[in-house]
Amino acid sequence: MKLICILFVVLTCVCLTGCGRQAEQQTIPEAKPVIEQPTVPEQYIEQPSTLVAVGKLEGKIAFVRDCGRNLGYDIFTVNADGSDIKDITNNPNFDIWPSWSPDNSKIVFQSEREWHKYPSIYTMNSDGTDVKCLTPEKTACQFPAWSPDGKAITYSTSKYSHMGLQCLDVFEMDADGSNKKSAIPVVRNLHSTYSEVSSSWFPDSQNIALASNLLNVWDIYTEKMGDDSTRHRYDIFIDRTRGLRFTQEGNINTYQPKTIPALSVSPDGKEIAFDYQNMVWGSRDIYILSLADKSVRCLTCGLDGDSYFPSWSPDGSVVAFTYEADGNTDIYIINKDGTNPRLLIENGMFPSWSRK
Question: Which of 109, 135, 259, 333 could be disulfide-bonded to 121 (CB atoms 3.0-4.6 Å)?
Fold first, then answer.
């Protein structure tokens, strides 16, 4: 009888220990090949020839977290290894779309704190102090991006729009909010619906890339600031059925960031990471456009769920992005060759990697 009791106790401890170890393990979806879904068209695939060696991840990442009902979206910062998470806005509004200054001392972001409740552009110190509104005017100002030299900020605005938020132009202003001017001087058809959003700077602080929609067709453009004669179009958003999607908040229509294509120029200026939702199989994925030969390859097509809002690591070896699957919205990172996708932050979206 004693032997039976001893065996029972030993088996119980082994089971409990195994369960405890299993509970400690964090389940991270593995990259799976697409089997049932259609494959990416052959002309949009570029197979990587070598694996990217990824060392210690450097810098910080600003990201957005849904803090729950009536608490809004806050901007957080975290070390690139996932440690030291801090809520730096702690405000019951929608604080989204963060972008770092080149010295990492400040962050520009979008919020609706102004009295008119239109989206406006703000700056703050990297710890969340000294918040300043750069666009207090009664017009929608969204999607800010800080130039690599720290002197300017681009953003999209409906300032000249006759159709409210359905027409957005890229503007440029000094980092203190002064000297606002159109960055893309293009003559518009007054009866067209268009949007130019998600501007991203090249390292020279003179050229930008942006996503542009005219008559429900999204394309990527590159252009020298203020000189539309240098504009170059990349026809990759070929789906004409997406259209523009808005959400109604009171009497104001505002963009949901997930529904517009976000893009990010690589630190060396040779590639552009962007997200695109293919309406054939419905998933939203991250792609990389090579500017040298215009080839496009899919970075996250092996993952189930939606991947969007990419941001490059300072050395260009890794891309952070929002990963949405099974009701969860998290931040993942992946090597630029598509290998080793892994979880970085639970309950996070819209990552922005600092430049160093």
Answer: 135
